[in-house]
Amino acid sequence: MQMGRMSRRAFALAALSTLAMAQGAAAAPGRRGPDGPWTGAAAEMRGVWLATVANRDWPSRAGLTAAAQRTELIAHLDRAVRDRLNTVVLQVRPTADALWPSPYEPWSQYLTGTQGEDPGWDPLGTAVREAHARGLELHAWFNPYRIANHTDPGRLAASHPARRHPDWAVPYGGKLYYNPGLPEVRAFVQQAMLDAVGRYPVDAVHFDDYFYPYPVAGQTFDDDDAYDEYGGDFPSRAAWRRDNIDQLVKEMAAGIKRVRPGTRFGVSPFGVWRNATTDSRGSDTRAGVQTYDDLHADTRRWVRNHWIDYIVPQLYWHIGNAAADYATLVDWWAQVAKGTKTRLYLGEALYKAGAAGQPPAWRDPVELSRHLTLAAGYPQVRGHVFFAAKDVAADPIGAMARVVADHYGQPAKPPR
Predict the structure, then answer these.
(1) Which superkingdom does the taxonomy of this entry point to (predicted)?
(2) Cα–Cα distance between 269 and 5 in angstroms, integer?
(3) Residue-level pLDDT at 41
(4) Which residues constitute the domain of residue 65?
(5) What's the rounded Cα separation, in Å, for the pair 268 and 245?
(6) Residue 412: inside a domain, yes or no?
(7) How far apart are the first and last CA of the chain?
(8) How many CB atoms lie within 10 A of CB 277?
């Protein structure tokens, strides 16, 4: 088995000497799409994450006028079109708040600077309408359990559910989280997220990598009471926690189908499910975090059981990384997705290109283009999503421009 894996990897790496496969894909004959003849490249995901938490990508700062916020948003959509991308993944619930007029949670502080203050417009509704007008898909990105990037409930809006239900909240690692072990929490966060799905024709619902929080040394996530009440049928607390997240994923998938049939459901987890030293089914990596063990997210199971429509593992490492080689992980995820109905896209660390403190590979503007060339050798890989929009716009060393020149010569519709 190892020899087969290595020969496949060697073959993929050899392909880096030429862009023939990528160019061949770009020159693929047209096909008929749902709206009529399509003359662009074969369908593939070409996405970008548009993060709102802490004003990472947009709005550029809190407190801008509604007109200025809208202008900035439109600029990101127009940039996606210019780079021949086809999907924008917009973060609409960054910290148990909302970028739409939600009856369940307050307006996001990242709009006005004050949580709960009406920004004077509807960002999500506008984003969906303007994205569709440009031929872009709009995937609504939700963070299920993060309440705040601090631990003081008193700083939340007076109407915030976490203030009305303080027993739902757990402080951990300097942040505040909803407790995934409480059935009433799971029901509430689904209700809050599905409100947006019911209001707007979003093309997909998107979760990121935050389920149970990333481990913090010396700290314990205090869910003792919930475990005592609900964990009795499980062999361990970890198994109970994984089941809590499994239930969220399965119930959310069913809810989306009920509220807006045809809307897809995707997840973008940390790129390592488990290391092979932990589990023989895992990847040949030595990552310090494993989603199965540390975030209690059994992402491999979700793919194999088709609980989600697509997965975008965050493969934020360069080719040849000693602990987590991009090439090794592409191969592993391709084998996981093989034979399933779950689409595989790859999350790309555009933000590392040219960034201070990164390994030499990330100072090479061709590194990301090499990723796409390598991935083209795997039929299971149906596209890529880039983190994130601010970096697409700035592109300090031309890494995104190189991807576009080498791989996105023609427009492409996203896979359906």
Answers:
(1) Bacteria
(2) 23
(3) 78
(4) 2-28+39-407
(5) 14
(6) no
(7) 33
(8) 10
Q: How many independent structural domains does the chain possess?
A: 1
Provide the pLDDT for residue 73: 98
CATH of the domain at 74: 3.20.20.80
Helix (H) or strand (E) holding 265, with range, is strand 264-267
Note the pLDDT tens digit of each residue in 134-148.
999 999 999 999 999
Q: Which helix (H) or strand (E) holds 403?
A: helix 399-407
- For the chain, 416 residues long, the average pLDDT of each consecutive 10-residue run is 41 41 35 45 95 98 98 98 98 98 98 98 98 98 98 97 97 98 98 98 97 97 98 97 98 98 98 98 98 98 98 98 98 98 98 97 98 98 98 98 98 92
Determine, yes or no, domain membership for 416: no
Sign, CA torsion 32/36/40/42: negative
Summary mean pLDDT of the chain: 92
Instruction: Please check whether residue 33 lies inside any domain of the structure.
Output: no
Distance CA 105, CA 159 (A): 8
C-alpha to C-alpha distance for 349 and 222, rounded to whole angstroms: 32
Q: What is the 3-state secondary structure (H, E, C) of 35-92?
A: CEEECCECCCEEEEEECCHHHCCCCCCCCCCHHHHHHHHHHHHHHHHHCCCCEEEEEE
Radius of gyration of the CA atoms of the chain, in A: 21
Strand locations in 332-380 (E): 343-348
Which two structure tokens, joined as six digits, stand for 392? 């697409």
Question: Which residues, other chains included, contact 325 with Cβ-Cβ below 8 Å and sequence gap of 6+?
Answer: 284, 285, 317, 319
CA distance 226 to 185: 11
The Cα 94–Cα 197 span in angstroms is 16
Contact (Cβ atoms closer than 8 angstroms) between residue 244 and residue 145 = no
pLDDT at 39: 53
Using CA atoms, how far apart are residues 400 and 394, in angstroms rounded to an integer?
9
Q: What is the pLDDT of residue 15?
A: 42
The token duo for 182 is: 């409480």
Residue whose pair of structure tokens reads 């079109």 in the numeric block: 81
The verdict on residue 413 lying in a domain is no
The dihedral sign for the CA sequence 255, 260, 264, 268: negative
Task: State residue 416's pLDDT score.
Answer: 82
